[in-house]
Write a structure and sequence with these properties.
about 210 residues; 8-stranded mixed sheet; 5 helices; 12 strands; globular; binds cytidine-5'-monophosphate
Length: about 210
């Protein structure tokens, strides 16, 4: 019963983790499965949008009608996102690693003992888009928190110049799981998007986006 209300719109989605190399065979990663972001890309395409999905390393099929760019690191994800601009809407769902490692060009040997890794900050893709000359009209970030969910999400919205933050309580088994409970924080307040499968919540969020753009 949903119309194709996003026809003609370009929607950019990031999803999955990033992998930050330690050496040629080892990485620092996080537990993002990419399922919520892929479901959002699928829901956007189903509403008729042109969708670019920038995906970190995940084991998921590309949703129908979605143009996918695979990346590994946060630096690569930022470059792919910028190359995909302009977009009407950007939904940054990826769990980007906060730090990268000063990687060794050759494999670290176990016999040398535990390495002293040196970390450097990664670019914040959402904050970069927040002040970008080609800033999408509707810029949406996610906040995955185990504590003080809504207040942390509200701070993130202003700190990163996002229009909306989708707040995601990850204190349960959300990471990698099939279901989720989302709240939407806008400049006007907080809306409960409900609990359900990641696919159902993706459709709810995209319907809300279509309503906003109309
Ligand atoms: O600060 P935090 O990582 O909790 O912010 C989460 C939001 O910011 C998500 O939308 C995530 O995709 C985005 N983010 C990003 N680049 C980073 C870190 C987070 O785009 N380096």
């Amino acid at each position: 019963t949903v119309g194709k209300d996003l026809t003609g719109k370009h929607i950019l989605v990031t999803a999955g983790p990033t992998h930050e190399p330690i050496d040629p065979v080892r990485v620092i990663a996080n537990r993002s499965s990419g399922r919520q972001g892929f479901a959002i890309a699928a829901a956007a395409a189903a509403l008729g949008a042109r969708v670019t999905l920038v995906a970190g390393p995940v084991a998921l099929p590309t949703p129908p009608g979605v143009a996918r760019i695979d990346v590994e690191t946060a630096d690569q994800m930022l470059a792919a996102v910028e190359s995909a601009l302009p977009a009407d809407v950007a939904i940054l769902v990826a769990a980007v690693a906060d730090w990268k490692v000063e990687a060794s060009p050759s494999k670290l040997k176990k016999s040398a003992g535990p390495p002293q890794l040196r970390f450097a900050p990664n670019p914040d893709i959402l904050a970069t888009l927040g002040t970008h000359p080609d800033r999408p009209r509707l810029l949406i970030g996610f906040a995955a928190e185990t504590d003080n969910l809504l207040s942390n999400a509200a701070s993130k919205r202003t700190a990163k110049n996002a229009d909306w933050i989708v707040a995601n309580d990850v204190s349960g088994d959300v990471m990698g799981g099939a279901s989720n409970h989302l709240h939407l924080l806008t400049a006007d307040g907080t809306e409960d998007l409900g609990a359900g499968s990641k696919e159902v919540l993706a459709r709810t969020l995209l319907a809300r986006i279509a309503q906003d753009l109309a």
